[in-house]
Amino acid sequence: MTSFYDPKAGWSLWRWPFFEDSHYELADSVLAWLKDAQALAEEPDLAKKGRAIVQSLGEAGLLHYLVPDSLDAFDVRSLCVIREALTYNDALFDAMFTMQGIGTLAIQEHGTPGQKEKYLDPCRDGSGSRGGRCRRIGTRERVRCGGNGHHGYPGWRRLRS
Asked: Phi, psi (5° rounding) for residue 58?
């Protein structure tokens, strides 16, 4: 378990009182993913590289932190650990990770059960990036929300990615 900062070792998670052992274990998992993911950075086609990164993040289980099964399981400290490690190594890794959460938040909070099943599972495991499902969220879907998207009045809002 990484317990201190060692500048010779690259990124590591400092021992802070607000992190739990699970956060240090997560940091080690992200570092292991990063070692395996260095080959992804070699892909010259940016679109292929982005899809490969998202798929790999999903296969490693890291997207479950962004798109949890329940919003009650959402742990901001874990997101901070993952994002700091990813961006330390490659900003594109962090960008591809973050976009999965931005693209799914409206559905996580306000989507119907059918929308959640259709979009969240593929985004959670990284398979949605292959067919563009996570990128196309909202082109035809709307969710019921507390506002209509215009100044908070009740109504429907089109999801946009």
From this structure: -65, -45
Q: First and final CA of the chain: distance in angstroms?
A: 37
Contact between residue 77 and residue 19 where contact means Cβ atoms under 8 Å apart: yes
What's the pTM value of the predicted model, to 2 decimals?
A: 0.73
Q: Identify the architecture of domain 7-158 in CATH.
A: Orthogonal Bundle (1.10)
Mean pLDDT value across residues 51-76: 90
Q: Which two tokens stand for residue 5?
A: 């900062």
User: Which pLDDT score, from 0 to 100, does residue 30 have?
Assistant: 93
- Between CA 144 and CA 29 the distance in angstroms is 37
User: What are the residue ranges of helices labelled H in 13-69?
Assistant: 21-37, 46-59
Q: In whole angstroms, what is the distance from residue 107 CA to residue 136 CA?
A: 13
Residue 50 pLDDT exceeds 50: yes
Paired tokens of 110: 């306000």
| Radius of gyration of the chain, Cα coordinates, nearest whole angstrom | 17
CB neighbourhood size of 44 (10 A): 6
